[in-house]
């Protein structure tokens, strides 16, 4: 065991603390520093016996989180105090009451928001999703909770190397799934970029390493190229007496990989791997004019790509981001992205929401406020399931934006490919719910029409209209989805209430009372999940007199109990058969205690022997094995981390074996389609080859299929024999 040098650690703690004071010296008074010192002393004492996985003193973490909050996000005294104390209530004997007594109610409230929720949730709901939802509830109190949480996550990602591999994968996946998009939406571009790169480093380490090495190899050439590129621009900017700075930077590793995937190209073919940023000192009145003057100078020397001009100064992004972007053809036929902005714009681009406090008079601040108000609406939805909430929230985090005009010329910001329904809900909930039709640029369009930037949209409403379920298939905004779902639930409750009265009345006629027992029996008989669904089906007429008579007859004839027992016995025997059945699948060892368990291969990634894998416990389908590079891995690791089981291969046997079936019977139209649909869709079996010959009304054929084991094959044969027209199915 490594010996601990206490004196060396004390010095390092003090060095980091002094670094924190330097990071916040421009925004703290003498009294502020006293409060920060008090918080520091409490944190040091509270965490004195705690260490991180790396073996370092735990206190390094809160100090470094406070430094990120101060320097990289630009937060001030209250946030620095909260960052230092953010784990104290969760991990030590201090209570929120202690914090409030030592500081004030604001600090206590922020720390309350930062303290992880320790309740045990319904195991069908991701704890990460529920925690994330609870964390966002603090938006209604104080945005600083979210900003400090992002600082905490960034430091955890920077120190992730000391964690076990399965923990690295879980934390990195969660970061890519939720925290990087959240940093993006709050305008924290530098933090968003670092979170993405670190997320990629631990989820796709080989890809990260390959791109990183190629960037390192080309660094010297890149620096020479950028110097050559900016030389004439600098000379002209100096001639025109601009006060400016120029930064050259490569695109992030995550961004380069995204382009490689999106464009289907190799690293060398990504055309704008580096960018330069021109930051000009300007007065508020001259900002726009100065940026366009610099654009003019750049394009005097280099030809711009007209499709790559982005003017986020005239119309800033929803998170307040302002900048002028263009891509120009530089020397030697290389594309270079040029970003032009003022010092104020750069501050907001780097520090996002926190920088807005510096520029309170900025009219652009309302964009981010509007977004936060929308999130509050989502959070207040009474029926919002945590996972639905995270999905709806995530949907709008990273979406590209379009700008749509109302008939009066007001501007609305929507995600790319938004529809008239999204626009209607953006105006007002009632306008969305009563939307009967829409005109885009004066022409009637369907509800699913994708809007484009610059469209002018007029919504036609009617008091007789109400939200429809098919709207959910094409709307793009979380606001619209949430409002439609809530309206449909309310409508369903009303119809279900009417359906219950209908059912009571019909049962009364045949002298049956609708009590708790009858309700439960009917739910089992009709195989429905809950009474709301059953009453709704009676309300809309999907269940009627015929179904009631069938239920009562079955019950009266004494078949009902027998039916239940048969279903139960069938399920039990099937389950036993599945567990005991011989299998040709490779053995997989699960968990730290190396258990051999039954599993299925997830279809989304089709892992094979030798792939890195993990197990995922499904609700109805046992354990499914996924490849760590599976497209769904990040989402699963993030949303359902508590259902992930470490796994590895134990044998080298083949997963599937091929079997040939001879099938014959009476020919009829659509028979081949029925057979292939049953094999592929219903039984999820792959067909290697199929050859069916028809002659004088009869057919005979050979079908080669890939099955997992003998039971799988027998189930398939039984199903095929029940297809109308099939006489025999024999395994060859």
Question: For the report, how would you describe the main beta sheet?
Answer: 6 strands, mixed
The CATH class designation of the largest domain is: Mainly Alpha
- Helical content band: 40-55%
> Count of DSSP helices?
28
Describe this structure as you would to a colleague.
With 732 residues, the chain is an alpha+beta fold. It folds into 5 domains: 6-205, Hypothetical protein af1432, CATH 1.10.3210.10; 211-362, 2-Layer Sandwich (Beta Polymerase, domain 2); 487-579, no CATH class; 582-649, no CATH class; 657-731, Alpha-Beta Plaits (2-Layer Sandwich). The chain is 50% helix and 16% strand. It contains 28 helices and 21 strands. Strands 1, 2, 3, 4, 5 and 6 form a 6-stranded mixed β-sheet that branches. The chain has a 6-stranded mixed β-sheet with strand order 13-12-17-15-16-14. Strands 19-20-18-21 form a 4-stranded antiparallel β-sheet, covered by helices on one side. Strand 12 (588-590) and strand 13 form a beta hairpin. Helix 3 (60-72) packs antiparallel against helix 4. The longest helix is centred in the last third of the chain and has 32 residues, at 478-509. The relative contact order is 0.05.
